[in-house]
Amino acid sequence: MDNYWENKAEAQRRLGKVIDGLKRYKKTEDIETLLLELDRIRDGKSTPEVKPLMLYVEMVESIRQGTRLLSALPGLIHNAEAVYNDLFILGEKTPDFDNTVAIFKGLIGIDGLIAKELFDLALYSTFSDKKNYLCIAQVIGNLKNSKQIFDKIRVYGLEAREYFVEDTGYLANLLKVVGRLNKTRLSSFDAVMEDELAKLRKNNGIYDVDPVRLAEVEKNVSRAELTIENGKNLLELLDRRCQKIKRITDELDDKSKVIQQNMTDYLDTKTENAKTALEDAMRECEEIQRKSILMEKDLFLKQMFSEAESELTKYKSQAKAITATASADIAAIGRDADGVIKRLRKVAEDDDKIQKFVENSRMDEAILQKIEKLTMLNDSMIERLQKEAVNVQENEAPARQEAGQAQTKSARSRSEEYKAAVSGTGAQASVQVSSAAAAKKEHRIIPPVNPLLDRRIPFTERYAMVQAEKKRRMEEGEIFHEAFDDVITAVMENVNPYLIGPSGCGKTFMVNQIGEILNLDCSDIGYINEEYDILGYVTAMGDYSESNFYQLYKYGGIAFCDELDNGNAKATVKLNSFLSNQERSNYCFPGGERVERHANFRVIAAGNTDGSGADVNYSTREKIEESVQQRMIPVYVDYDNRVEQAILANYPDWFEFACAFRKATDRWEEACGVPAQGIFTTRDAFRIKRYMDDTSFSPNKIMNYEFVQTKEPEYLGFLKEELAKLIKKGDLSYGIYQIFADEVERIRKRGKRT
Asked: Which of 326, 343, 214 is nearest to 277 (CA)?
């Protein structure tokens, strides 16, 4: 045993915590007796049945966490102590103590094998590796008729164990029998067990012999026994005669000895012959059975292969027919498409208006190219002016401050021009005529790089612009979460933030704020169930159905992957192709277009878990693939009291009660080790404000709908006691607390949830 088990002070502390937790509830006589015994053990006045003390404490904690009915707690602890005595024959000196402790914990764990009466010492002793017992017991415990199945397996296991050398085969056979019993009616359990035992005997070379042959062998054995008996009688007679004539002659005595020896040899030979005949009969029977089994096996395999070959031939014929039909259809479509394209080209060449429109488009394109060149020249001039300003700053110390202000003003002016350019061009559209597409289709102009995301502008300047806009909005009354700065920094640095937080804490609201401040389109693509949620798809008519993700990737914007942990893990992996964030990267979408990644494209993901899979509150969540997690940075977003205080600014009594309510739910988790249900969220604060502003619901109904309904009476009683400690008479929220207390008492008297 290591030092962990010898930490008596820690064990006494944990036992005291369990005692305090039990004292909160209504006590019966058995619970009172149990509390007295636990107090004596904690104070060292009594020695527990289970040793060491730390193991006893862990046993009591585990049974308490897995038990809803306190009245059953003493009985379960007593049963666990009985199991301890069976497993730990020498107490703390039991060989292989640590491994036996692991088995013991498994029996008293949350699955409740002891509570379900699924422990049998005889069956447990048949396993060399005791963990295998836990395996079979847990499987049975999850079945509908677990008690009846366990009773049958307990008897079957003791009979079947002698046919197995290792635990592996033994465990596999027991699992197989459990599976058959689970699919069988209770009345047929005995027949299933007899059938499985018969198979075991047969597999171990124990066969039923033909009754006629067995009767013949028994008859021969009876004859041999009769012969032996007659011989014995004859020997006795000869012996008596030899004794009478022994005195007469030694020669007769020698002859009688020879006769006796000869008779013994004869009887031994007869017996040996009978044994040989029996063994030959057994071997012959075994050989007949083996040949019969092999013949049946060959016939079965031949029939299977024949049926498979027939089905395969049929499917090949169908595939050829489908391929031929599809090829003919594709060829016909191709011929029709070529004809349409030729006709469109001829119409375009013959129509003067179309030709003039194309020429104007080309002129517009040339003008745009010139504007782009002027912009590049303007950028180079700004850089040159900045360098000159730096030189002046180094050479003329008194003018440093003015030069710095001029440089900042210049950079800010350029950022404002970029922002205005993004807003101006983002709404424009140009018409392109594509004879290859054989249709007229409108396309958006690819917007320029957003100045707030342009890495050619120093990050400090871009970030200062963002903070200035945030400050302006706050002065107008807008609310920002405490994690806002970290998230928008990650977006500007293009590192794909993954927002982790509970439901209703403000993740979606914050992402929309980031899109507004950065002047980017923000689209919630939701959780990813299939790859086409990201890529889009080609319709039956051959047209490409664009996804929102495609539009954002091509023209720039924020792709918000909300509830990423609730999607299909395999489909989510497709995001890896778009999370590398390399400059000038591209991707070929299903429509055949190879699209270059826009510099304004960003990905933000959000979920209720850290990506490791489901938990108690979010039971349907999936594990996010490790490769996806490595391409994101986790940002934890919790409830922000400042946000809720701003929301409920006109209702400080409700805000004070909400804060106290959240503290009470936190104490439930600390006391019981179980996540609290129905915690107060930012979304709840918005609803309460709306109800109070509109006077639509009364305070009693708000309390019932937002804080009381769907909660267990026991849980509500705990919250009421904790709130009574946090809210005192005279506090702003005392009247709200009284409404809560009245609702809880009404529900507890009814004894069930509303």
From this structure: 214
Q: What is the pTM of this model?
A: 0.43
Question: What letter represents residue 6's amino acid?
Answer: E
Q: Is the pLDDT of residue 47 over 90?
A: no
State the pLDDT confidence band at 457, using cuts at 50, 70 and 90.
Answer: very high
Q: Among 678, 685, 671, 677, which residue's Cα sits nearest to residue 722?
A: 671
CA 281, chain centre distance (Å): 59
Q: Take residue 124 and report the two structure tokens written for it.
A: 């447990």
Identify residue 363 by its one-letter amino acid code: M
Give the Cα-Cα-Cα angle 178, 172, 152 (nearest 5 degrees). Answer: 30
The owner of tokens 């349907």 is: 620
Check the CA dihedral 97-99-102-103 and report its sign.
Answer: negative
Task: Specify the higher pLDDT residue, 571 or 337.
Answer: 571
Max CA separation in the chain (angstroms): 157
- The alpha carbon of 28 is separated from its chain's Cα centroid by a whole number of angstroms, namely 40
pLDDT band at 397 (very low <50, low <70, confident <90, very high): very low
Phi, psi of 92 (to 5 degrees): -70, -15
Contact of 175 with 139, CB cutoff 8 Å: yes
d(CA 111, CA 109): 5
522-524, strands of its sheet edge to edge: 522-524, 557-561, 601-607, 497-500, 633-636
Report the alpha-carbon distance of residue 719 to residue 740 in Å, rounded.
Answer: 10
CA–CA gap between residue 190 and residue 365 (Å, rounded): 88
SS3 at position 16: helix
Mean pLDDT of 652-680: 83
Contact of 605 with 565, CB cutoff 8 Å: no
Contact 709, 742 (CB under 8 A): no
* Strand partners of residue 601: 557
CB-based contacts of 217, cutoff 8 Å, min separation 6: 274, 277, 278, 281
